[in-house]
Prior knowledge:
The protein is α/β, with parallel strands linked by helices. Helix content is 25%, strand content 27%. Strands 6-5-4-3-2-1-14 form a seven-stranded mixed β-sheet. α5 (181-191) packs across α6. The longest helix is centred in the last third of the chain and has 14 residues, at 203-216. It is globular.
Amino acid sequence: MRIVEAFSELGQLEVGSGEAAFVFYKSSALAVKTRNHRFLVDPANYFSLEHIKSLGELDAVFVTHGHYDHFDPSGTVKMQETTGAVIMCNLGAYAQLKGRVAPEKLVLLEPDKTAEVTGAKVTAIEAVHPGKKPIMFIVQVDEVSLFHGSDSGYTSAIERYGGRARVAFVPVGRPSPTASVADAVKIVKALGCSTAVSIHGSEREASGFRERLQKESPNVRAIVPESLKIYKV
């Protein structure tokens, strides 16, 4: 399936209260739809304006840090101008967008602080990864709670957010120097989520994550997403 087809199908999918549907592409890039919202996470330069328009309305774009496989400054500016979406990002990305995106459409996500915008409550958690204050985050919107782990390793700070996320997108390895299968499993356990989705890793690492999680936390639904396939959680 092509990106336009996948995004169009996602945009038209009916999603109920407390549900979310998503399309994973590569690295940690996601398109997510909840009952009343659509947003992108770490789109880098993977998606053209045609792709994004096929989603329908776009409420927000979340950027965890400034590495090229997560963030493209010029592409993000064009994305915002075309869709009117709010850009919510870490300090590194914020510094590259300030002055290029209207102030009311640009929100800095700082570790251990919460920002509320477009009907969503977003709490940032400092990531274990190189860069200028990279973050992970939890978004609570439309009675659903989602964690996105960027390409971070485990940090005990996550334990403060146990029970706050029902679905967790967790990085399992390559090419991140900090993410790993073992750390991904620790993140899932610390969060106490009911569904865990592997991102940012090789096929072997993703399979290893699912197998290990099934052994150690059999009550957690483990998903190894296929690129451009739609999932409902």
